[in-house]
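Sample intake — NUBP2 factor
Collected from: Edolisoma coerulescens
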Amino acid sequence: TLAERTNLAGVRHILLVLSGKGGVGKSTISTELALALCNAGKRVGILDVDLCGPSIPRMLRVQDSAVHQCDSGWVPVFVGQDKAIALMSIGFLLERPDDAVVWRGPKKNALIKQFVTDVAWGDLDFLIVDTPPGTSDEHISTVEALRPYQLLGAILVTTPQ
């Protein structure tokens, strides 16, 4: 649809941050990578699709922010000293940041698709996608939703044990 083309049309590169297990530092890598790219003069967005553990809003100290609507969808929360990083997370859609998200597959998949199609990212050099642990529905949904854009790269976070 037109909205799908429009909202990601200005994104040059999409990077997924993945791992086979939890607690290895995906959200930390996503956040640090976004800050480093931003410091290098790049326009950066972070899409936090870790629906059950959305930690990036807290890492960037914007957990009390709210998402607003515009004509082309949701406006991401802008963070950093010069508001240079665009961030979208389910953490902004919960009544309280510590609320648990206990959803089955179809609802998670629908929200991920909505995050891909309905967020007004604008022009970005990089969109970093922070994924949940493992190889679950969320990963398949994310890759399927992003497949038409053919800009995908991945960073696989591993540990030595």
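Post-analysis note: The longest strand covers residues 11-18.
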